[in-house]
Amino acid sequence: MEKFDVKLVALDLDDTLLDRNALISDENVAALRECARRGIYVVLCSGRLEAGIVPFVRRLEIAGTEAGRYVIAINGCSVFDMHERTQIQCHKVPGDVLLRADEMARSAGLETQVYSTDTIYYGKLTPWIKMDIDLCKVRGVQVPDYRSLLAAGSPKMLIPCNPETPEVAHELMIKMREEFGERAVVFTSKPYFLEVLPPGCGKGESVEWLCNRLGFGIEKAMGFGDALNDESMLRKCGYGVAMKNASDYIKSVAKYVTDFDNNESGVGRFITEHVL
């Protein structure tokens, strides 16, 4: 079988590279280490903060290599160079959009949170905000004057909902899309996680930017994902790969679908067959 000509592999984490226990399997690790050894960039690309992605890079043991130096965080709002220990690209949602989104969320009985590279900030702690802090394994800080923080802008706002009532997030998403139009990107990364991102920003846009910075086009990139926040990456990458466990819609926008799901090392098996 002829192998794909890939120079960069971009990988979503939850329900893609990670299994149900939020772990990277040995088979996935082996395939990605071999990619890095061959000089293929391996870029973890997640809605998490940089600080929440780094432990998974350590698991791959590639951070010290040229091929493992970059991560894309906050669903494409931030590109981080771990060798230089700095953001090399960052986008923010305007403060007035965040303030209005916060008002709309509260009207729906929800609270919001925003991000820095290593901290989640919120005005009022809810069980759903705590759930996300625990999931991301980063610091959470309650801010007394939270609205002033929002006014300064942020790379991302998350509105976590009760997982048992995801329709609340969906209804609010529709209202926010009507309210903000092209001023913000609004979507659900999980049925109960509603996100507000800067316009023209997403995983696919940041993968494309990084590819251009590295001297090749995004047609040489392979992207793996399972959810709506992976859509732009799957559409833009020359080799967009949906997981077997992805929704039918995400499978329809991808060029390829793995034969195995995230609990069966679907990423590593696909790379071994088609790249290595």
Automatic annotation (TrEMBL):
What's a single GO CC term here?
Answer: cytosol
The Gene Ontology terms for molecular function here are: magnesium ion binding; phosphatase activity
Does the keyword field hold Zinc?
no
- Keywords assigned: Hydrolase
- InterPro entries from the xrefs? Cof, HAD-like_sf, HAD-SF_hydro_IIB, HAD_sf
Instruction: Look up the domain of life of the source.
Output: Bacteria
Q: Which Pfam families match?
A: Hydrolase_3
Protein name as it appears in the record: Cof-like hydrolase
Instruction: Specify the species.
Output: Treponema saccharophilum DSM 2985
